[in-house]
């Protein structure tokens, strides 16, 4: 029997996509990103700091983000912003996500009618 091609990790990259998208709008610090994701998704997506910070560090290590330390109200925070490399990565991830959601929508809408709606 031949192995089936599957994509069990299709949700991988979603936190990265959300983080890059938010940081593409404005610089933010980690906890602010956690709150923004929760708020903008009406708590449908609620990622914690244990998800956000490793993604931030990985993106910074890959050159997709840059950081700077700012002191606000006596508290030091690290603010992140998107680099040109990060903007390209965001565009790629956004296109992949659009393709995935379109494919899923085609199934949900059903068969041949799906193409007419899209």
Description:
The protein has helices at 14-25, 30-40, 49-61, 84-109, 113-117, and strands at residues 28-29, 65-72, 75-82. The protein is α+β, with helices and mostly antiparallel strands. The chain has a single domain (14-112), classed as Arc Repressor Mutant, subunit A (Orthogonal Bundle), CATH 1.10.10.10. A 3-stranded antiparallel beta sheet has the order 1-3-2. Helix 2 (30-40) packs across helix 3 (49-61). The model has no long low-confidence stretch (mean pLDDT 88).
Number of helices: 5
Q: Would you tell me which CATH topology applies?
A: Arc Repressor Mutant, subunit A
Strand ordering within the main sheet:
1-3-2
Strand pairing plus helix content: what structural class? alpha+beta
What keywords describe this structure?
about 15% strand; Arc Repressor Mutant, subunit A; three-stranded antiparallel sheet; about 120 residues
Topology:
Blueprint: H1 14-25, E1 28-29, H2 30-40, H3 49-61, E2 65-72, E3 75-82, H4 84-109, H5 113-117
Antiparallel strand pairs: 1-3, 2-3
Helix pairs in contact: 1-4, 2-3
TL;DR of this structure?
It contains five helices and three strands; from the N terminus they run H-E-H-H-E-E-H-H.
């Amino acid at each position: 029997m031949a192995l089936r091609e599957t994509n069990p990790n299709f949700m991988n990259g979603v936190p990265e996509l959300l983080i890059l998208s938010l940081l593409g709008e404005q610089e933010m610090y980690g906890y602010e990103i956690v709150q923004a994701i929760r708020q903008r998704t009406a708590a449908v997506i609620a990622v914690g700091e244990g998800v956000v910070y490793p993604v931030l560090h990985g993106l910074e290590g890959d050159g997709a983000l840059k950081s700077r330390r700012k002191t606000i109200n006596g508290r030091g925070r690290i603010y992140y912003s998107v680099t040109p490399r990060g903007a390209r990565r965001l565009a790629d991830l956004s296109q992949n996500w659009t393709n995935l959601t379109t494919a899923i929508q085609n199934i949900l809408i059903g068969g041949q009618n799906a193409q007419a709606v899209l």
